[in-house]
Write a structure and sequence with these properties.
This protein has helices at residues 3-6, 20-28, 48-58, 74-84, 103-113, 148-154, 167-172, 184-192, 220-233, 240-264, and strands at residues 7-13, 36-42, 64-69, 89-92, 98-99, 119-127, 133-136, 163-166, 198-209. By secondary structure, it is α/β, with parallel strands linked by helices.
């Protein structure tokens, strides 16, 4: 993997004018620049595209391609970006997340130690609404001698903005399922998992930012329903007993999370549908 020749950064954006510049700056200051940055606007009604074009003109050292799509969600936008990308590797980045300046360089160095790997994921900081940070280690508990599919089914071990993977793998699996309102990334990882050769990079190389309005900020029950839908689709990866245990554990987690959200907003009515 050579970022200058092989890596296309794919960024879906939707009404991200207030924070897309911060995200793009973390790409522009990479110690090893990517081949290109493919930004797919998902039908923004604000001045997101104007902000991106101004940034592109001010930073000629980085090749930015801006595609405009009708509003169909982040899965469709990511698919458009992957299809348009020229690199053989895709580095995903959400429009409000951040990279450390050596992210691409360190991922390339790590790949040299395991050139058979076709998907890499680094650790990252999770920045919450109150600006408190914690480090997430996605490799904890992962066993190289166990099935990747089974382990992913039990726990999603990838964060989209921390993943760099082969473009041909994504295309061969048909890309993100844009019919899912959320958990599209998790569903794609499960679909790709039988052919995955995973390399976890222990370095902390990015920041996942929780904002009001993104998937981490609420809507717990709708996400729960879609995660269950994804798990049911791929239940062949585990035994029936394991499947039941996973659903029970997931229910407890989302009941707790939904209860916390209700206390924060007591006027909100939560309806559980599975």
């Amino acid at each position: 993997m050579n970022p200058n020749d092989d890596v296309s950064v794919v960024i879906p954006v939707f009404e991200a004018a207030n924070f897309i510049t911060d995200t793009l700056e973390t790409v522009a200051i990479q110690t090893t620049l990517p081949l290109e940055v493919v930004i797919v606007d998902d039908g923004s009604q604000d001045n997101t595209c104007d902000v991106i074009e101004l940034f592109s003109k001010a930073n000629p050292q980085i090749k930015i391609r801006l595609l405009r799509e009708a509003h169909c969600g982040p899965g469709n936008a990511r698919n458009a970006g992957v299809n348009a990308a020229k690199g053989s590797w895709i580095a995903f980045l959400d429009s409000d997340d951040l990279w450390h300046s050596n992210k691409l360089e360190q991922m390339a160095v790590a790949h040299q130690t395991n050139p058979e790997a076709n998907i890499l994921c680094h650790n990252e900081i999770h920045r919450r609404f109150d600006n408190t940070d914690s480090v997430t280690d996605y490799s904890i508990g992962f066993r190289s001698d166990d099935s990747v599919s089974t382990q992913l089914f039990k726990c999603n071990r990838f964060s989209t903005s921390a993943v760099v993977c082969r473009r041909d793998m994504i295309l061969a699996c048909g890309g993100f399922d844009s019919t899912l309102p959320n958990a599209q990334d998790y569903e794609l990882w499960l679909r790709m998992s039988p052919g995955m050769k995973v390399l976890f990079v222990k370095d902390v190389l990015g920041v996942y930012v929780s904002r009001s309005g993104n998937i981490s900020s609420g809507k717990a029950w709708r996400r729960y329903k879609n995660v269950v839908r994804v798990l049911h689709r791929h239940r062949k990866f585990v035994t029936l007993v394991a499947y039941a245990k996973i659903l029970m554990r997931l229910s407890v987690v989302y009941i707790y999370y939904g209860t916390i959200q209700t206390f924060k907003n007591p006027t909100r009515t939560i309806k559980v549908e599975i």
